[in-house]
Specification:
With about 325 residues, the protein is an all-alpha fold. It has helices at about 10-45, 45-65, 70-85, 100-115, 120-140, 150-170, 175-205, 210-240, 255-295, 305-329. It is built from ten helices and no strands. The chain is globular and about 50 Å long.
Length: about 325
């Protein structure tokens, strides 16, 4: 019987660090969901809340680019790569810079649905799309790590994550409105893996260091802000101005959370790949969202036993899929 040789210690350490970082990224996504959900509820306009979130994040990144020459140089590398695309490593097409569209949709769904269905149900609904799309994205080689074949543990991990989602939302089956709203974060989850893969490619093209990840964040926020601004202007003609801006300063921190986790994900995806990044992010989201709904709920409903059971099962999916990966790399 053949055995798998242990991976070099430094490589295993890099993957463990990457998985830990992915867990932290997921926790920030859950926090952002809570912030943007309440902002959307106060404004009574989810699109306006998403636009504010992207605008504040973009302002932070543009200030950083203005102050740090390395970020501007990395952005210049991205622009030159788009203008003169090359085949193979280092090439970048214009459409590979559109990851911000997925991010804009995610933030918009946060602002629209979280105040109704809660952070935990929002999160587990997004898991379904993210678990499956991460497999497909890795297999097609959209990410900077190149194509990665389907394996038994990856498929089983994704299927367990799907079962966890069904279990977590099972108590919503008698409430069609809540179940229908859960479809939106599921669709956002489908785009999350594509966004991570695209941003990873942009980061690799921009620079091999941390400045490349920040540059990818700038591109992501520019694209997402432009898309949301266009949608907001159209929505303005139908719905009119949103309610007055809230006075609570913490409601405007969703964009800053996005800056951190988008830039971090662009760096981490180069180490662990899209699938493991997605599962680590899912684990962080599930745990943080469960605690948020227990102690700082956005929706006026108790955390049910199916949601807790779904959270535990989704964490099991992370272990199933990620641990063998850490042993092999």
């Amino acid at each position: 019987m053949t055995t798998i040789a242990p991976a070099p210690r430094s490589t295993r350490q890099h993957h463990l660090i990457g998985l830990t970082a992915a867990f932290g990224i997921g926790m920030l996504v859950a926090v952002q969901s809570r912030l943007n959900g309440e902002l959307g509820d106060v404004l009574a306009d989810g699109i306006a809340a998403a636009l504010i979130s992207f605008a504040t994040g973009l302002a932070v990144l543009l200030a950083g680019a203005a102050l740090v020459p390395q970020i501007r140089h990395s952005l210049g590398n991205v622009w030159r790569a788009i203008r003169t695309p090359m085949r193979g490593h280092g090439g970048l097409r214009w459409w590979q810079c559109l990851g911000g569209l997925s991010g804009a949709f995610l933030v918009a769904t946060q602002s629209i649905t979280v105040s109704v269905i809660g952070v935990a149900v929002f999160t587990v609904a997004g898991v379904a799309g993210q678990a499956i799309s991460s497999l497909v994205v890795d297999r097609l080689g959209f990410g900077p790590a190149g194509p990665q074949a389907f394996t038994t543990v990856r498929v089983v991990g994704a299927l367990v994550a799907l079962v966890a989602v069904v279990l977590a939302v099972s108590d919503q089956l008698g409430h069609p409105d809540g179940l229908l709203l859960a479809i939106l974060p599921a669709l956002a989850g489908l785009g999350a893996a594509v966004q991570q893969a695209i941003n990873g490619r942009v980061a690799r093209t921009a620079s091999p260091d941390a400045y490349g990840a920040i540059a990818a964040g700038v591109v992501n926020f520019l694209v997402g802000f432009a898309a949301l601004l266009l949608v907001f202007l159209v929505d303005l003609g139908f719905e009119g101005l949103p309610h007055h801006l809230p006075s609570e300063p913490w409601l405007y921190l969703g964009g800053s959370c996005g800056v951190i986790f988008i830039s971090a994900a662009a760096a981490v995806v180069r180490v662990v790949g899209v699938f493991v990044l997605g599962l680590g992010t899912i684990a962080g989201q599930l745990i943080a969202s469960l605690f948020i709904d227990l102690f700082l709920p956005a929706a006026d409903k108790a955390v049910t036993s199916p949601v807790v059971a779904g959270t535990v099962l989704a964490l099991a999916a992370v272990v199933i899929a990620a641990v063998p990966n850490l042993r092999r790399h």
